[in-house]
Every structure is written in C-alpha cells, then in structure tokens.
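# nightly structure sweep
# worker-07 picked up a monomer target from the shared queue
# config: single-sequence mode, recycle default, output format = structure tokens
# input follows
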Amino acid sequence: MPYNGKTFSDEPVTETFYFPLTIQMEDEDCEDLFEVSSSSVRWFEDEIQEAIDDYQSDINMTQYLCDDNDEIQHKLISAKWGVETMNGDIYGRVDFELKESFTDEETRLVKEAVSGQNSDGMGEGFEQHPITLDGEDYYISFWNSDDYFIYTADEMDEYLSQQSGQNFGGM
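# output follows
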C-alpha cells in the first residue's frame, strides 16, 4: 500500500525497546516505600506482565507517542509495554508493531516519546497501582532516573554482553 511514495509490506514489523525499572515495595510498619532490586521480582515476571496487560487493555498507547509526527503515526499499529527477564534482572520493554521499520531519526524520536511516557508512569500512572506478589505490594515504575536508558534490541544485546563481561569477566 503506497504512502508518500513509499510502499509498505502487508506483514507487520516488530521493534522492541528496553529500559531499566524502578521497583518499590511497601513497608507496612513505616507506611513507606523502599526500593528493591529488579532481580528480586524476576520470579514474578508473568504476574507483572498480566498486571501491565490489564492496565493497558483500555488504553491505546499509540495515541501518546509522537502524535505530531504523521510519518511515525502512520507506521504505528500498536505499542505494548511489558517486562522481560534478561541476565537475572527484569527490564521494561515496549513492543511496537509497525507497518514499516523506524528510520534512525524516527527511532530517536520514539525513544524520546517512550522516555516521556515512562517518566509519566505509562498512560495515566501505572506505577501508582500496586501489584500484589507473594502477599506483598509492589510498585513497578518504567522510569529510573539513575543510569536511565532506552535501547533497541541490538543495543540491549550489546549492553547485556558488556554487563556479563563486567560481572563475570574474572571467573
């Protein structure tokens, strides 16, 4: 199907972006939250994903992404946030289903838009809703101001490779 002189494939393309999470647990004694490591909840990946899916079920996240860029908007079929465990840690991810791959410039703009959504709490504030895991309330945030990044799948592979080398290089 032609658009602005370009031809799009009938088969959707998927592009995935990854980012660190901030995970907090409720301390009922102090009525406060404290941060826990992403590796401590990796066993609950399915439950966390289910909560994210439930939250997104009534939200079309594509409406929040690059809504002022017709080229990007035309390529977007869907945007789904989620989590994935890699190298023992759980990371946030967003999967884009597209009519055509993003250009380098579009990738840069989409990363900025994802960062904005993540810092706002995804949609209207996913991070404000607790997820009960093993009897405890956790708050999952797609934003992490310390050493924050958004990587493409290739960039994430490289990052994880470097992390593995740093963590296990001497063994």
